[in-house]
Input
Amino acid sequence: MTNTGADHPATPLPPGSPAPEFALPSTPDQRVSLAEFRGQPVILAFYPEDWSPVCSDQLALYQELLPEFRKFNAELLGISVDGVWSHLAFAKDRNLHFPLLADFEPKGEVSRTYQVYRATDGTSERALYVIDADGIVRWSYVSPVGVNPGADGILRALEDLENEEAT
Amino acid sequence: MSRTHWGATLTMPVAEERDHVQGSTDAAVTLLEYGDYECPYCGAAYPIVKEVQSRMGDRLRFVFRNFPITTSHPHAEQAAEAAEGAAAQGRFWQMHDLLYENQRRLDDPALRSYAETLGLDVEQFDRELTEHVHSARVREDFMSGVRSGVNGTPGFYINGVRHDDSYDVETLLAALERAAVSP
Output
């Protein structure tokens, strides 16, 4: 899982790092903060843009897996630099029922703090984080931007968390 | 760019007694597809797989598993269960083919008409669909795909390793031939 080569320009925050706090709008009158989910695992799915084909497949797959994530009491949050109105239209069109957060103003600020902002394109990387109940990064991965990373890595990370708690 | 760095592999090996298989266990190479009956890319891949099968003959074994993305495709789950319902009556591949050949008509009346076309016991077929008798099987297929790193449909595996290249006939054939000589 080394991030070298042209396909992997970004190195995400490594496991063990405290996950940077944020509060981003999910709708015109609602904000979602990371702190709200203290006590449960959080999956952050940074993606480049609403409407692009790979994003849609990836987020549709995660929507399909919400019941699996819930088995781990995990919360899924999507994050991109699109604004809330784009997010709302996109979520409605694609039947997505988890929050899509707008890292819109200041643009990409949260993506930058998670080290997954692509300055050349002005978008986020396609990056995944699994954060534990104490707000610590337990797994992170940056996928080549055109490649859907699937969900096996997320599920493995959630399982590892659960196994550690059990011991 | 499309090549993965993960080397994703099949976590649930092909099992003749549970999987839908065309071709011999002794075939030189196994192609497995995770597919969604309503996905247009899977529809496009359907004749490609047929072509590859006809060109490789008995050197190829083909396996199909369900990967319905119901979020995008409202009929995909029911279609997958319909194929499993046909399988319960020994007609999986005939239904699989009909579904891909009629991708735009996958509502319940259409599914029932395909069951009639295939001479299935339609009463049993209908009951199983209504009671979702085959949903657990479809979910098992789906989760085995998720665990194996399926990241879109169609998801192809050649001898258990995810095929991340394109799946036009020539590319797929070349990859299968390579795997056939060095399994």
In short: Residues 40-56 of chain B form the longest helix (17 residues).
